[in-house]
Specification:
Blueprint (H helix, E strand, L loop, with lengths): L2 H20 L3 H22 L5 H16 L5 H23 L7 H26 L3 H25 L2 H26 L3 H26 L1
Length: 215
């Protein structure tokens, strides 16, 4: 399989999953949502000569999260949240491995807007989270860290791969913010569609950043 074919499969699978959400066709969601990350893994494999293990593990745990979140119930939500938390930890380690240097002052200053954003979201949702407050808080802090290290990476490199990774992290944060509002505050049909569209875009941009860095 060549890169163009793999990209076509990835886009097609993502579109079919979104169509499943729009037209409320459950079988499309059940079949094609797990295939999004599997097709992205295949696309990554044919895009590089050498596989980055940290990125691959991030994809594997993202896939696990997608599968768990297909099902309803608190247990599946916790398992899905935990899977994505681990995925983000691997993404963070990947980005940090690309740093020119680790400067605590730079990281701390860069973290401020991300921490404020996380704090604002948690304050907005705290009365709706119930016993999910702590798990959601931990996850929100981790994805805030992903945004922070991606911003630091761009400050240090100012290159296409760093800009693409930062944009991917920001879109991922937007997707999770929309998901949180849709789940805990006010569920809306359009938000479900936006969650999936932004999620697919974020995963693709992270993939692009990894490929650009490899080149």
């Amino acid at each position: 399989m060549n890169k163009k074919t793999a990209l076509f499969i990835f886009i097609s699978v993502a579109l079919l999953d979104v169509l499943g959400i729009i037209f409320e066709i459950e079988v499309l969601r059940l079949v094609f949502k797990p295939l999004i990350l599997l097709s992205l893994m295949a696309l990554y494999k044919v895009s590089v000569n050498r596989i980055n293990s940290m990125y691959l593990l991030g994809l594997v745990f993202s896939f696990s999260g997608d599968v768990f979140l297909l099902f309803e119930g608190k247990l599946f939500f916790i398992l899905g949240l935990g899977s994505f938390l681990l995925a983000h930890l691997f993404f963070i380690m990947l980005v940090v491995s690309w740093f020119k240097s680790i400067e605590i002052k730079q990281i701390a200053l860069t973290a401020i807007p991300f921490l404020l954003g996380v704090a604002g979201l948690l304050l907005f949702l705290k009365d709706y989270l119930g016993d999910m407050l702590i798990p959601v808080m931990v996850y929100a802090l981790i994805i805030g860290c992903f945004g922070t290290v991606s911003a630091v990476l761009y400050q240090q490199h100012k290159k296409n791969f760093a800009a693409t990774m930062l944009l991917g992290a920001l879109v991922f944060m937007s997707s999770d913010t929309i998901l949180s509002i849709n789940l805990f505050y006010k569920p809306q049909f359009i938000l479900s569609v936006l969650v999936m569209c932004t999620y697919v875009l974020a995963q693709y941009m992270i993939y692009r950043a990894v490929v650009l860095k490899a080149k």
